[in-house]
Specification:
Elements lengths: L3 H19 L6 H15 L4 H18 L2 H17 L3 H9 L8 H21 L3 H21 L5 H13 L3 H12 L7 H16 L3 H17 L7 H11 L3 H18 L2 H129 L3 H9 L2 H21 L3 H7 L17 H10 L5 H8 L3 H13 L7 H6 L3
């Protein structure tokens, strides 16, 4: 149903192509007649007015050609169009104008068929019993005449046999004939739509509603795909769904049928639809009113809910603002706490550094105090020994030997070596990794190598004193008994070999 426009567009395209051929210049009257017949075939189940217009045009073309058989054929098509659209009296009038004995053999079947369908319709819709009986007799006469002419295996013959079984309520026999007919057609053709519709009538007579609905649906699908606007399947299907209480679907189907009937312009179809349409529309309106009442109730309820929701949203919004404000305050407090924590960490780090420095300072002080006391005690003992030796030389009157001994520097050199040895051991005991870390501050090819790991050379002693906080070259010269220039030269030489000359001595002071 949703694709109806697609199928109709395809139908209109076929008709447009045929009409373009028909309007070509220099087309012969015979070709014009045959093309018009094809257009009539397209419009036959699609638009009554267009089909009627082209049939009347073809009657005129047949007269122009002077072909009486073409004219009679067109008149029979007119009668068929009138009878299939419910215009039975008009169809009979057209047929009465045709002399049966003048018809060619190939047109007799259409002649009898049109009479049969015309009198069948008149009999069905006539209320006067005498006239109804007359029409029924004429219907039976033309049906017998048509049946005698038809091939027993043709669809027209099988359709008449099936109808006979249906009228006699021999449903199984009728279904068997219908199945035989159905096997010879494909969906999407007017004949398939008709056969499946007739099959649904058989299931209706036997009370098998689900099977009836199935074949009505198949018939309706075929009608839509073939763009058959003169149809009845959806109308019957709508009434079934109405009786089942599915008003929505029934209303949708009957509206669809009305649109098709308007497109085809079939009076008979309008009459059939109008009774069903009024019942379904009334029920649909009542249901719509009920739905509107329910909708109003729901709208009131929803309005109350909406009001409650607005109040709730306002309350939640305020709570969120309060929560946001609290979170903001908490965040600021956390930031302040974090800042204080960082400051505390820095303070702790400074305290740890000061503690370590104080610990190192205390350790150095303890080490050097011990060393100083030992050295001081040794020098007192040496001084006492030296005093006794001088006294001995003086008492023994060996003043000349004593004078010679005081001229020698051997004693000073020995004591200086002892001082260096004690200084090196004490310093390396406090800073065991001094040499390794000191070399780490120098260029790779300028590092200092010492043979004895327990002693220092002159450069290392100078910077060992700097590590101990003695930065003045004059003080260092006095301690190590070198000239100030010598100390300065040593310092400059080593700094030139450093990786970072500017910060070298500061980095030395940080060696641990």
């Amino acid at each position: 149903m949703n694709k109806r426009d697609v199928y109709d567009t395809s139908k209109n395209l076929r008709i447009s192509n045929l009409e373009e051929l028909l309007n070509e210049e220099n087309i012969s009257l015979e070709n014009k007649y045959f093309l018009t017949n094809k257009i009539i075939g397209e419009y036959e189940k699609y638009s009554f007015d267009s089909a009627l217009d082209y049939i009347e045009q073809n009657i005129g073309v047949a007269k122009q050609i002077g072909n009486i058989n073409f004219e009679k054929e067109s008149r029979l098509k007119l009668a068929k169009l009138l009878v299939t659209s419910g215009r039975y009296k008009e169809a009979i009038d057209v047929l009465n104008e045709i002399q049966r004995q003048e018809l060619p053999e190939k047109l007799l079947n259409l002649y009898y068929f049109s009479f049969k369908e015309g009198y069948s319709g008149l009999s069905f819709y006539t209320s006067v019993k005498r006239i109804k009986a007359n029409y029924s007799q004429l219907y039976a006469t033309y049906q017998d005449s048509l049946l005698q002419r038809l091939d027993q295996n043709s669809d027209e013959s099988l359709a008449l046999i099936e109808k006979g079984f249906r009228d006699q309520r021999a449903i199984e026999n009728a279904l068997r004939i219908n199945a035989q007919r159905l096997s010879n057609v494909e969906s999407g053709t007017p004949k398939y739509s008709l056969i499946t519709f007739e099959r649904s009538l058989l299931f209706e007579l036997s009370g098998r509603i689900e099977e009836q609905k199935k074949f009505l649906i198949l018939s309706a699908i075929s009608d839509i795909t073939a763009s058959v606007k003169d149809n009845a399947s959806l109308t019957v299907l709508a009434m079934i769904y109405f009786r089942e209480g599915d008003i929505e679907r029934a209303h949708r189907y009957i509206d669809f049928s009305v649109a098709d009937a308007e497109k085809f312009n079939s009076k008979l179809r309008f009459v059939n639809i109008s009774n069903t349409l009024s019942v379904i529309s009334k029920a649909y309106e009542e249901k719509s009113l009920e739905q509107q009442k329910e909708l109003k109730k729901m709208l009131v309820f929803i309005s109350i809910l909406a009001l409650f929701l607005v109040i709730t949203i306002i309350y939640i919004y305020r709570q969120i603002k309060r929560l946001s404000s609290a979170r903001k305050s908490l965040k600021e407090a956390n930031n302040q706490l974090q800042s204080l924590n960082e400051k505390l960490q820095f303070t702790n780090a400074d305290l740890n550094r000061l503690y370590n420095e104080l610990s190192d300072s205390d350790r150095i002080k303890e080490q050097y105090i011990g060393t100083f006391l030992n050295l001081y005690s040794d020098y007192i003992n040496k001084l006492d020994t030296y005093r006794k030796m001088v006294r001995k030389y003086i008492v023994s009157n060996k003043t000349k030997s004593l004078l010679e001994m005081t001229k020698s520097k051997q004693l000073i050199d020995n004591e200086l070596n002892i001082f260096y040895e004690n200084f090196d051991k004490s310093f390396l005991h406090i800073y065991p990794n001094f040499v390794e870390q000191f070399n780490g501050l120098l260029q790779d090819d300028k590092q200092i190598t010492i043979k004895d790991t327990n002693s220092l050379n002159t450069e290392l002693r100078i910077f060992a004193l700097i590590r101990l906080g003695i930065s003045s070259s004059s003080k260092i010269s006095k301690i190590l008994r070198y000239s100030v220039n010598t100390i300065y030269n040593y310092r400059v030489k080593v700094k030139n070999n450093a990786l970072n000359r500017n910060d070298f001595e500061d980095m030395v002071k940080k060696i641990s």
